[in-house]
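Final report, closing paragraph on structural work. Over the funding period we assembled a curated collection of sequence-structure pairs, and we close with a single example.
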Amino acid sequence: MSWMRQRDAFTAAARWFAATVTAVDDAQPHGWGRPALGEWDRSDLAGHTARALLTVEQYLGNATTTSTATTLDYYRTVRASRADPAAVAERGRQAGRDLGTDRPAAVDRIVGRVVDRVRDAAPERGVVTPMGEWALAAYLPTRVFELTVHTIDLRVAAGLDVDPPAAASTEALRVLGLLVADVDATSVEAPVVLRALTGRQALPSGWSAL
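Its predicted structure, as stored:
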């Protein structure tokens, strides 16, 4: 996918997330403590989703990079890091608290800042994460995926229609395709995934490409 399309997908996903937070708040302003995903309530989930934007802002440097690490390399590194689920959950909760009581306004500010920064950045700009360095063009699709999937989660939890922008869905599905293609062809998972994605059986409960 071209850099322009990646940026457009990121912008679409970010703005859809902001619109969703506003819609949730308008419909149920006192419902942010209701369950959303796993141990997260709606506020926690919104905070975790906002981190898909805030990490871009935090990690994006001012220099270009010679890194050739790919989007798929990012997920392989995340898997190998064995991140503590409890720590991930707590970061989501803290991010939810950091949004404050006026979540739509807070998210709008974050989206405005980060979308502008990405718009002005070159694809080869370095993104320095705790797990290594990537070019922005390799890292940004992971953020589109996070924004799109978790905004869907938030909308489902709030009983809203799920209508992601086409640009965001296309990029998120492309990333998911990379993850599915990375399944070990010699593992017992390979035939299960092949049969499931061709409509022959359901995936086992809880199976994830992540």
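The chain has a mean pLDDT of 95. Helices lie at 3-27, 42-59, 71-81, 85-98, 103-119, 136-157, 166-181, 189-197. We thank the funder for supporting this effort.
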